[in-house]
Amino acid sequence: MRKLTYLAVFETDESPGISVYFPDIPGCISCGDDFDHALQMAKEALSLHIYGMEKDGETPPPRTDKIPEIVSGNLIVPVSVYPDIVKDEINNHREKTTVTIPHWLKEVAEAEGINYSRLLETAIKETLGIAS
Fold it and tell me: Residue 63 burial (CB < 10 Å; 0-12/13-18/19+)?
């Protein structure tokens, strides 16, 4: 299982909460109410950012071991994510789709206990030649 780890900077300032950014992943930022919440949100942000990059055909940058400048009150924490698990979760998330069929066909299908979702999924896979 692929695991990626990047250094995250947890910043505190006068405002409530904690901001998080990843020096090696420009644009990947998050925040949280306290450290535990900020860590959870940082993992989610990093996971989704990497998912988006890979979906766009980009390769996540390598982690540098350069430690960012430490400002008083800030923490530098390694954050690990498992991109393949996130990809599987997102890709296999069920989506609601509306379809239109004749009323008489709907009545017959319901009387027979047809599961529309399963039937549609199976039909689409067969049409596209995708093995179940």
Answer: middle
